[in-house]
Amino acid sequence: MKYSFKNDYSEIGHPDVLDALSSIGSKQYDGYGIDEHCSKAAELIKKKLNAPKAEVHFLPAGTIANLTFISSVLKPHEAVIAPLSGHIAVHETGAIEATGHKICTREGVLGKLTIADIESVLLEHKDEHMVKPRLVYISLPTECGTVYTKEELSDIYDFCRDFDLYLYIDGARLGAAINSPECDIAYNDIARLSDAFFIGGTKNGAIYGEAVVICNDSLKADFRYIMKQRGALHAKGFAIGAQFAELFAKNESKTEPQAACLYDSLAIHSITMAKMIAHGIHSLGYDFLYPVQTNIIIPVLPTTIVERLHKDYLFSEWERFDDMVAIRLVTSWATPMSAVEDFISDITRYK
Ligand SMILES: Cc1ncc(COP(=O)(O)O)c(C=O)c1O
Fold it and tell me: Is 101's C-beta closer than 6 angstroms to any atom of ligand 1?
């Protein structure tokens, strides 16, 4: 069977998360997120964020989290500003547009939106004959695996406040960003420097589920109504709550001593595996399209090598050049060291 470096959601869930779910067993709970597991998980998350006043809601997946939150805050004529590579702009089947809101994209730098990008969208949209940009969407990490610095995030948030824009962060892989050695943004910074964001569970140890965190008081009202209307209010909400309670329980890891909870130790593992792959590829003399900062690696390899790798591994191709191909590799909380070693030794043999 081919080993997959295609994504970080190919494994069902971390064994501790599975144990946590089976331990809630056949007991009965109230539905729709009003239960002890969701309350416990929300408290743990707020503590981690140092944001006691934030509201935490558990939703089943990333696209529904993005469209539910974004459509909940925008008026009919309002629009989103996003990087060209942003997940909502490319990989969500027009879900945001289907809620009636245009996405205005800009190229960005290394997958990151810049203030100049946001400014240029504002300059282009001046009156009621065009949509009114009202929310900035970024993801952390970006689609290219890169991270914003605290200064960049802080500048974007300040700019948003000055120009009456909301800042929303897609954190499908937030753990991989916050635990990246190249990222100086901490959990409390995310809560301080955005209006809302989500913490991805699906890609970091949960079977499924995302935690939407709303920090701006003015955006909290009626969110559960909108969740229900959009199909995002899970009857068995406690199943997501129990997973997040396990991921964010204080759970000092022996193998990752810098990690404070399972969510962090799993993210650190995925980054470590990515860095090992990057180191191996770099030492063979090949380069990368983007700096390797999280669990996404986009090396540029000779087509001949990539064709041979396709026989034993699953991964996606990002861009083709003359006789070279940029491929996208993603490691996960479950990637074994042996898969990384085999992958590097195969590239070495094929060189
Ligand atoms: C950054 C980002 N946001 C959102 C999503 C959407 O998640 P889902 O496919 O579970 O709806 C993904 C999924 O790959 C993602 O990578």
Answer: no
Closest ligand 1 atom to the C-alpha of 139? 1
Residue with tokens 């009965």: 28
What tens digit of pLDDT does each residue of 95-154 get?
999 999 999 999 999 999 999 999 999 999 999 999 999 999 999 999 999 999 999 999
Residue nearest atom 1 in ligand 1 by C-alpha distance: 172
Say how many CA atoms lie within 13 Å of 350 toward its Cβ.
Answer: 19
Q: Residues 245-249: what's their mean pLDDT?
A: 96
Look at ligand 1, atom 5, and give the residue with the nearest C-alpha: 62
Which range of residues forms the domain containing residue 29?
15-247
Whether 134 and 106 have beta carbons less than 8 Å apart is answered as no
Report yes or no on 300 lying in a domain: yes
- What 3-state DSSP class applies to 292? coil
- The helix (run of H) or strand (run of E) holding residue 346 is helix 337-350
Domain boundary among 213, 247, 281: 247
Residue 139 in contact with ligand 1 by CB distance below 6 A: yes
At which of 247, 279, 309 does a domain end?
A: 247
Q: 88 alpha carbon to ligand 1 midpoint, in Å? A: 8
Mean pLDDT of 39-51: 96
The enclosing domain of 280 has a CATH number of 3.90.1150.10
Please tell me the residue having the least CA distance from ligand 1 atom 2. Answer: 172
Q: In this predicted model, what pLDDT tens digit does every residue of 284-329 receive, in sequence order?
A: 999 999 999 999 999 999 999 999 999 999 999 999 999 999 999 9
* 179 and 39 in a common domain: yes
Whole-model pTM: value is 0.97
Q: Does one domain contain both 42 and 185?
A: yes
Q: Please report whether residue 252 resides in a domain.
A: no
Question: Residue 300 and residue 286: Cα distance in Å, rounded?
Answer: 7
Task: Tell how far the Cα of 348 is from the centroid of ligand 1, in angstroms.
Answer: 33
